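Input set for joint prediction.
Command: fold jointly, output tokens.
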Amino acid sequence: MTSIASPRVDDLQSESVYGLYFGFLVQIAVSKFRVPESEAEGLTHDVLISCLRKPATVPDLRSWLVGAISYASRHYWRLNGRNVPAADDPDLERTDPAPLRSIDSVTDQQAARDALECLTPRCRQVLQMRYFEGCTIAEVAGRLGVKTKSAQKLITQCLRRAERLYHEKGRAQ
Amino acid sequence: MTERSKVVPFTVRHPNPARMAEFAETARRLEHERAVSDDIVSSALRGTPREAWATLRERRELHTSGALERLGQEIDKRLDTDPREALAIAELAASVADALAPDSYPAIILAQLRAHAWRDRGQALSYLGRYDDALRALDRAEEQFQKFGTLGHDRAIVRFCRATLLQHLRRFDEARAILDECRQVFQSYADTQSYVKCTLAIGNLLVRAGDYRAAREMLSPLAREDSPIAPIAQMGLGWCAVNLGTAEEAIEHFDAAGRGYRRLGRDLETVRAAYGAGSAMLRLQRFSDAIEKLRSVRATFLSRGLVEEAGLSGLGIVEAQLVLGNAPAARDLAASLVQEFTAASLNRRAVAALAYLNDAMAASSATPEIVRDVHSYIFSLRTDPLREFLCAN
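tokens >
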């Protein structure tokens, strides 16, 4: 096995990529897909390693990684008995990337907690279902008794509101 | 559980240091291999006669991810120009990938390397019309993903190749289902390029399957893009227009495709676009224009050794000559086509159909309809080489 001893800038960048995305990807697997924590870490490691063979073909690393961990989580449940429809829920990656970035960059949990607590009960309930219980938009819509489009709109609005509040709380602290 | 504890989801997670080190080591190694493999692969291929390329699998310096990636690029370069050579390299790559030691890379990287090597082999076999072998190679490629659910993107790349192959076999429903699945995966990975490629493939599949309206809907947005795929979309739209009876529009699409291909330096495709325009002129009953266009196309195909395509162009000229009442010219050309197909040892059924046309010419009983039947029959032999010739007349 070839071994190159001297550390280089791009190695450090690779490590920083790992550090930057590890927590975020595990969070998606655990919170959205309810993959057990230890399994989620293994899947995340595989996703990050597999990405190394695709540097030229990955135009948007973050979106690629989110797609990969979502696919891996669904596959995990297909193997382990829970049927998760393939790619039935693509909006996590695309509809509202800006609010997701705020989750990604959370370093101050208190600010996030306070922001969520300041939301209306309905918003809190919507975000809880969508991101912490792993419901699809259709499931959220079903539980709220509204149309899918309305549920999607509501989720986006609530996430934006949470993000705004999060930033305000973060600044205040 | 209090409301407060229920809504706090964030957990700070630290990566396992051993895993992070493995990641960094793999990143470093792959990059180093990429940097040095250009010379290694080029000189290995250059310095070895093609017939002996298989023996290169013994060279340890080719047993790296970088070398396999480089071999993959060499295969891509040759698929259109020399598929036999592409296959020779693909066979080398597959045997190298299979021979990699289990501990040479993390297991998931090994799976990727093997899957892509076998995919390349499948693709090269498919270009040579060895469809059964190609399907078996793609099965081998897909087997690699069984243990790795994280390789959704790689799997979609292999499945896309399978869909392309199934289209050639006219198994349109299976191909369409796979393409839809791949498109969804590429979209979820935000891989716009592959997503667009998939959309284009679905559009072309619809053209082949004869669903011209749906194809037009799918291909139109792609034709507007200023990208290498625009001429391909324009070609598809051209054939849609021909078959939907809007031949004027077809000529515009084929001309646009031709301009696009010319810009890209794809000479052969430029000629194929001109062939499309010539066919559209026939539909518009612009017979003299069609003859002129198809003559030039035919000459180019013949000069490249593409006898079958030259023959199809020739049949268009024969049809036009018959309509214009130039029976002797049509007869002479039909006789030439039989000779060309025979000399090139093309499908004997195609030769028989052309001989039938030739006999009809000699007996002065040939009609433009017979010529069209022969044309359609020869075209259909591409996907169904055992089909029997049944002439309507």
